[in-house]
Amino acid sequence: MDKIIVRGGKALAGNVKVSGAKNAVLPIIAASILAEEGTCVISDVPALDDVRTICDLLKSMGISLTYDHEVLTIHASELTSVEASYELVRKMRASFLVMGPLLARKGQARVALPGGCAIGTRPIDQHLKGFEAMGAKIEIGQGFIEAKADGRLKGAKIYLDIASVGATENIMMAAALAEGTTVIENAAEEPEIVDLANFLNRMGAKIRGAGTGSIRIEGVEKLKGCTHCVIPDRIEAGTFMVAAAITGGDVFVEGAICDHLKSVTAKLREMGVEVDEQENGIRVRRTGPLKAVDLKTLPYPGFPTDMQSQMMALLLVSEGTSIVTETVFENRFMHVEEFRRMNANIKIEGRSAIVEGGSKLTGSKVAATDLRAGAALVLAGLVSEGETEVTALHHIDRGYVNFTEKLLALGADVERVGPEEKKREAVVPDTIKVSFSPNFA
Ligand SMILES: CC(=O)N[C@H]1[C@@H](OP(=O)(O)OP(=O)(O)OC[C@H]2O[C@@H](n3ccc(=O)[nH]c3=O)[C@H](O)[C@@H]2O)O[C@H](CO)[C@@H](O)[C@@H]1O
Ligand SMILES: C=C(OP(=O)(O)O)C(=O)O
């Protein structure tokens, strides 16, 4: 079993380059299924386990893919199967995003039920409601969801009860090939939705309003391959912003898009951290003490749930009491128990965690309970006394490219050890560009 070993006490300094966004690239790869002709060439594709999983899923459907220097080439015309297996959907819930494209292109799809995960039950009722409104018949049985359309899907007006990111994406992809116009109201507004809409429009779709609560999609008859560059990962960027702040460091997060990180920037500034928004990235510096602040997770442009645990690590070393309220996922406080092993003083009251700052964190053996929790434990380790060992790294590998190598290059005392590490073939070049051989072929 691999582990990350962190020895606390080093202030991070230097330049770190942000990789392409996991949550943008996954729906984009799913959307490539819609291309009946031509090739999709997607650049800045991060070498993540989740990317491998969705590529394996497309391969299992007869689609061929190649990956070289962060460029993924997809030939989706060869689509032969409309099924997504339990093994692949179980590994990663975003696999469910193939349902909309399959249904739109082939008129049918059979996708394993995604189920819940550590952070919540995560139902898919809004996705299904959208497909049904477009005329699909949905059946659930034997652990699968089967959807069938009689001919093309029909454009519809769909109001989402929750501004779900995944439902907005799945419906948008399905509607791209539907007959007539679809309007999604109370749509999610995340930057990843905009990136997906840009990709679809390059394929020939007619989508307007992505990034607002109302998206209008005029269905077209055919979509074809295109080229696209994925947006930088705002959550990875935010994680390194916190790494700079927690260690009292000075880090330039290269490639971070300031607009995508406004809520994180605002909270860091409230805490007394210097954040300098530049054209090609964000510089984060901290010289003084940190003030406690309250925060509440919300859909974009609110504070992202995917930054909640990293921010909690930072609040642990601030002066005073902070209240962190999680409104997006009902069970996203699993990291609290792990932080407590490091001497953190946190109380949970319903959907809020009362974080007492100022305790001296001590290194300990802890386990990642989800992707962001794993990153947050490493961040806490950077300022803990002694050695912290973080296990269950498969969570971190889902969403961070070369996490330890990037921290190491910023001066952290961190190493990854174990049998998996040997297989990863990671190289750490001067510039910390990706350096991974995922071998998708
Ligand atoms: C691959 C990807 O992009 N993952 C992101 C995406 O997940 P994901 O797309 O799964 O998140 P959603 O926006 O759908 O979920 C938000 C809330 O809506 C609920 N819900 C969702 C769909 C539905 O049909 N019914 C329903 O009740 C969920 O249980 C959750 O409580 O957005 C989340 C919220 O920003 C992020 O934390 C995830 O990192
Ligand atoms: C919750 C996350 O991802 P997913 O939706 O893929 O589980 C995340 O990226 O923090």
List keywords for this structure.
441 residues; alpha/beta; UDP-n-acetylglucosamine1-carboxyvinyl-transferase, Chain; 4-stranded mixed beta sheet; globular; binds phosphoenolpyruvate; peptidoglycan synthesis; Enolpyruvate_Tfrase_sf; UDP_GlcNAc_COvinyl_MurA; EC 2.5.1.7; pyruvate
Architecture overview:
The modification 2-(S-cysteinyl)pyruvic acid O-phosphothioketal is found at residue 117. UDP-N-acetyl-alpha-D-glucosamine binds at residues 93, 122-126, 306, 328. It holds the Pfam family EPSP_synthase. It is found in: Cytoplasm. Phosphoenolpyruvate binds at residues 22-23. The chain is of the alpha/beta class. The protein has 2 domains: 3-19 and 232-423, Enolpyruvate transferase domain (UDP-n-acetylglucosamine1-carboxyvinyl-transferase, Chain, Alpha-beta prism), CATH 3.65.10; 22-229, UDP-n-acetylglucosamine1-carboxyvinyl-transferase, Chain. It is 31% helix and 25% strand. The chain contains 15 helices and 26 strands. It has a 4-stranded mixed sheet with strand order 24-25-1-26. A hairpin with a 2-residue loop joins strand 5 and strand 6 (71-75). The longest helix has 13 residues, at 191-203. The model is unreliable at 426-441 (pLDDT under 50). The chain binds uridine-diphosphate-N-acetylglucosamine (UD1) and phosphoenolpyruvate. Uridine-diphosphate-N-acetylglucosamine is lined by residues 23, 26, 93-94, 120, 122-127, 162, 164-167, 188, 192, 305-306, 328-329.
